[in-house]
């Protein structure tokens, strides 16, 4: 069995991955703790730079768009889960081990138990220290894959049970609203957002991109929290949560309309996502998401030890950006070719051979026109 995705590839969704990775990269720069100019630290531009972290929410939305079609194409639910592990774990494991080695060499390394726990990408309700600070989102991803698999697996046998599980997932989102756009992505993939009004609004994705970021950042500031994920009943009083929840939902609506427009290549933003540079960034986006924390830690250490920070003053953060970006892109490109293409490719071939040798646990026969390959 070959992974033929050429007919399903969506260049706009693919390019969007590059945009979202750049957002997260800029956020890491902004939160490097290095001195910067007031222009980048305060005012509208400072607030805009703070929203880079929400590129992760859009990644969750893309997962919603691509995962169900990937599930439909898989020969069985077991093969689907194994394929997801083959896709994610090689890069995760290498980055976690590399960061742990960096820590051990500097005399501040994590315990072997913590390293082992990080290699499993635990779900968000298991609170552990993330050795790779970017890897926290992978726990959400694996949980989402599991929910999709279980719902899909049992829906043919007990639809009420499937609906109950889906409702339980919605309740889970009340405590982890950063995953809200996964639902929006699923609605897009299943073509539930085909109304004339939504299609008209989706012609202007840039507007809803700004609205989402404004809404999410506003929630963060109003709740005096570091992440929108803390705007939950567990961290707020019930009255405050009741006030905040409609804005969480509104942000989900804005983000979903943005993703709908992006998936159709609407507007100037949609066309920009089709540029070759954005396609390249989309291709290396997963490695570009996980490797920069290690690169940045090394660059920042050198800057402090050589006295560059004192010499550059407020220019330190801009210099940090310019120096960290090229090696991050180079390492991400190498990681993509070696780990994502070669290693994952070899694992997938073995999974395919096992799938062909054994009867599928549950053949997936539903046809679907996927928007993207689901990487």
Describe this structure as you would to a colleague.
With 375 residues, the protein is mostly helical. The chain is built from 18 helices and no strands. The longest helix is centred in the C-terminal third of the chain and has 42 residues. It starts with 10 loop residues before the first helix and ends in an 18-residue tail after the last helix.
Secondary-structure map:
Elements: H1 11-30, H2 38-41, H3 43-50, H4 55-73, H5 77-105, H6 112-119, H7 136-155, H8 159-175, H9 181-189, H10 196-201, H11 205-223, H12 238-263, H13 267-272, H14 276-283, H15 285-290, H16 292-305, H17 308-312, H18 316-357
| Termini separation | 16 Å
> What's the shape?
globular
Order of helices and strands: HHHHHHHHHHHHHHHHHH
Which ranges are low-confidence, i.e. pLDDT below 50, for 5 or more consecutive residues?
Answer: 1-7, 360-375
Largest sheet: number of strands, sense, barrel closure: none
Discrete helix count: 18
Mean pLDDT: 87
Range of helix content: over 70%
- DSSP, total strands: 0
Category by helix and strand content = mainly alpha
State Rg: 21 Å
Strand content: under 5%
């Amino acid at each position: 069995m070959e992974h033929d995705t050429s007919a399903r590839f969506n260049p706009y969704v693919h390019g969007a991955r590059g945009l979202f990775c750049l957002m997260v990269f800029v956020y890491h720069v902004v939160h490097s703790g290095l001195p910067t100019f007031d222009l980048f630290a305060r005012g509208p531009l400072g607030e805009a730079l703070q929203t880079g972290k929400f590129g992760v929410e859009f990644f969750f939305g893309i997962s919603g768009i691509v995962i169900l079609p990937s599930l439909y194409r898989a020969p069985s639910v077991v093969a689907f889960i194994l394929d997801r592990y083959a896709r994610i774990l090689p890069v995760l494991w290498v980055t976690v081990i590399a960061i742990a080695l960096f820590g051990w060499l500097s005399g501040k390394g994590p315990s072997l138990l913590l390293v082992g726990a990080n290699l499993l990408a635990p779900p968000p309700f298991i609170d552990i220290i993330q050795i790779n600070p970017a890897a926290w989102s992978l726990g959400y991803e694996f949980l989402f894959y599991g929910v999709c698999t279980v719902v899909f697996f049992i829906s043919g046998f007990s639809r009420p049970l499937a609906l109950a599980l889906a409702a339980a997932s919605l309740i889970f989102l009340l405590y982890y609203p950063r995953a809200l756009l996964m639902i929006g992505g699923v609605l897009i993939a299943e073509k539930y957002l085909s109304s004339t009004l939504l299609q008209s609004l989706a012609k202007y994705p840039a507007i809803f991109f700004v609205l989402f970021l404004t809404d999410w950042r506003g929630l963060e500031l109003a709740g005096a929290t570091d992440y929108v994920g803390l705007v939950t009943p567990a961290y707020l009083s019930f009255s405050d949560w009741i006030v905040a929840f409609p804005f969480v939902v509104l942000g989900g609506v804005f983000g979903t309309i943005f993703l709908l427009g992006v998936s159709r290549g609407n507007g100037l933003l949609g066309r920009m996502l089709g540029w070759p540079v954005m396609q390249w960034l989309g291709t290396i986006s997963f490695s570009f998401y996980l490797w920069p924390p290690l690169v940045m830690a090394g660059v920042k250490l050198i800057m402090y030890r050589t006295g560059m920070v004192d010499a550059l003053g407020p220019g330190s953060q801009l210099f940090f950006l310019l120096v960290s970006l090229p090696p991050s892109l180079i390492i991400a490109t190498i990681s993509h070719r070696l780990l994502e293409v070669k290693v994952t490719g070899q694992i997938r071939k073995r999974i395919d051979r096992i799938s062909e040798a054994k009867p599928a646990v549950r053949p997936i026969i539903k046809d679907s026109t996927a928007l993207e390959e689901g990487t």
